[in-house]
Design a protein that fits this description.
Blueprint (H helix, E strand, L loop, with lengths): L7 E3 L2 E7 L2 H12 L14 H12 L4 E8 L2 E9 L16 E8 L9 H14 L6 E4 L6 H9 L3 E7 L4 E8 H8 L4
Parallel strand pairs: 5-6
Antiparallel strand pairs: 1-2, 2-3, 3-4, 4-5, 6-8, 7-8
Helix pairs in contact: 1-2
């Protein structure tokens, strides 16, 4: 999947992505991933150089990618996608052609906008499904992250089963292009 700036627009503004620059974006990402609201990102104790090193590793990986998400041109979220046949879920389920794994993180804010996180995940999925090769998006959030389970279901994800990853017990869920369109109307 290439990084195309397709954009997604709704009543909250325009959501776009750009390639992540691990060297220049590490400071910003460090603030985001160590914020108490990012506990499920599992980088609470990371130092800036740890964040830079992690995203340099992702930038060099042909099976894992990261983008910085922008809301009306300003950094607002992190988007990662990966090939589940090679990363994250190897041996935990049988990947199908066109499966793409996904993570996203919304930047912490003191002035939240109602519906913003749902707009972000919608923009992320719209971006992933813009690639005709993407048939299904796969997520594996922590089983205790009830807020993200509800959010995932609102945009078309269907929970399949719990799985044990080295770092957590996760809820494996899938969203096809058709489920995404039916839940959001985006791409219809």
């Amino acid at each position: 999947m290439s990084i195309r700036d397709t954009g997604f627009k709704n009543g909250l503004g325009t959501f776009t992505v750009r390639p992540l620059d691990p060297l220049n974006d590490a400071g910003l990402l460090h603030r985001w991933v160590t914020d108490p609201k990012a506990a499920f990102w599992m980088m609470q104790d990371a130092k800036p150089e740890d964040v830079e090193r992690e995203y340099m590793k992702i930038a060099a990986d042909e099976h894992h990618h990261a983008c910085l998400g922008l809301h009306d041109g300003e950094p607002a979220f992190l988007m990662e996608w990966y090939d589940p046949a090679h990363r994250e879920l190897v041996g935990l389920y049988e990947p199908e052609p066109g499966d793409v794994g996904m993570h996203f993180l919304v930047a912490p804010t003191d002035t939240p906008l109602h519906g913003f996180t749902r707009s972000v995940i919608t923009a992320v999925l719209a971006h992933l499904f813009d690639d005709p090769a993407t048939r299904r998006v796969v997520v594996e959030p922590d089983v205790s992250n009830k807020a993200v389970h509800a959010l995932n279901e609102a945009v078309g994800f269907v929970p399949v089963r719990e799985i044990d990853k080295p770092e957590k017990r996760a809820l494996l869920s899938f969203c096809t292009r058709e489920q995404f369109v039916a839940a959001t109307g985006v791409g219809a």
